[in-house]
Write a structure and sequence with these properties.
CATH class of the largest domain: Alpha Beta
CATH superfamily of the largest domain: Medium-chain alcohol dehydrogenases, catalytic domain
Number of strands: 15
CATH topology of the largest domain: Quinone Oxidoreductase, Chain A, domain 1
Radius of gyration: 19 Å
Helix content: 25-40%
Shape: globular
Distance between the termini: 17 Å
Strand content: 25-35%
CATH architecture of the largest domain: Alpha-Beta Complex
Number of helices: 11
Order of helices and strands: EEEHEEEEHHEHEHEHEHEHEHHEHE
Length: about 325
């Protein structure tokens, strides 16, 4: 089979596409023929050796994909031919991948493989962030940083589906339309987000900030919070890990909340299936519909990773592995 491989930790440009042996079926796993794979920021970090998970070289990257079941064990709940989305953690940038059954999800017929590949990493992370860590309630106001990216558009859609009001923050005018199409009620530029958040909430502030960016906007994110507001720390795509002066938390009765989705589900992967069933009605109704910013063929994997690395992505970036 053809697959992308990281053979040196030199970033996206060093990722190659090679012929590799197909995986074999092991107990508790399902073989999936991959049609589309999702590309995410952790894939970029792993190509540089900067992610918390550092597999031995060489390895096949790719945490999420969608396709068709080729083979399953006799006790599996899946059958050959089933349409599925998958979260194999590694190995999705290949024509075939072996997936632990707990990380395999039924994909409704109405949901495309491109959309299915865009769901596991971003939407389950955001579901965990908003429901369990952020305790988002109906009618609250959510401010989303990096709102034109994969996590950002997922946060907009899920917050809106939970009857929240969404303020999307983008770094440039050309990214604003992506946030609007994802369903944001308001779109503001990063260099004015604090003033605009206060203005749009009549000076009260927002209830929840979704922050996959970090960097120098972190302090103003704290200032944008209403009393008892929550800042959800999802990642640091800006590259800088900010520090918190905890007196700000005390004076405003606000919280900085870590969102370690992987650390939460790894001891009990069954949580992933519970999350999927929670968002499944929203998928079937069309309330969640991942915006696909760009699609690349497998041979263009380096370009797909570079697009994310250079922060040019609009919505989700995917790799087309094979045609349906």
């Amino acid at each position: 089979m053809r697959a992308a491989r990281v053979t040196a930790l030199d970033g996206p440009a060093a990722v190659t596409v090679d012929d590799l042996p197909e995986p074999s079926l092991e107990p508790g796993h399902v073989l999936v023929d991959v049609h589309e794979a999702g590309v995410s920021f952790p894939d970029v970090l792993m190509s540089k050796g900067l992610y918390q998970m550092r597999p031995d070289l060489p390895f096949v990257p790719g945490a999420e994909c969608a396709g068709v079941v080729r083979e399953a064990g006799p006790d599996s709940t899946f059958s050959p031919g089933d349409r599925v989305a998958a979260f194999p953690v590694l190995g999705a940038f290949a024509e075939t991948v072996a997936v632990p059954e707990s990380m395999l999800f039924p994909l409704p017929d109405a949901v495309s493989f491109e959309a299915g590949a865009a769901l596991p990493m971003n939407y389950l992370t955001v579901h965990f962030a908003l429901t369990r860590r952020g305790q988002l309630e109906r009618g609250e106001v959510v401010l989303v940083h990096g709102a034109a990216g994969g996590i950002g558009t997922a946060a907009i859609q899920l917050a809106r589906a939970m009857d929240a009001r969404v303020i999307a923050v983008v770094s440039s005018d050309d990214k604003a339309e992506t946030a609007r199409e994802a369903g944001a009620h308001h779109v503001v530029l990063a260099d004015e987000f604090l003033a605009r958040a206060k203005e749009l909430t009549s000076g009260r502030g927002v209830d929840v900030v979704v922050d996959p960016v970090g960097g120098d906007r972190f302090t103003d994110s704290l200032r944008s919070l209403a009393p008892e507001g929550r800042l959800l720390v999802i990642g640091f795509t800006a590259g800088q890990i900010p520090e918190v002066k905890v007196n700000r938390l005390l004076l405003g009765n606000i919280s900085v909340v870590g969102v370690g989705w992987g650390a939460f589900w790894m001891p009990d992967p069954s949580y992933l299936r519970a999350q999927w069933h929670a968002i499944l009605p929203l998928l079937e109704s069309g309330a969640l519909e991942p915006p696909i910013g760009s699609r690349h063929w497998l041979d263009d994997v380096a370009a797909a990773l570079t697009e994310i690395d250079e922060r040019r992505a609009r919505g989700k970036v995917t790799l087309t592995i094979r045609q349906p």
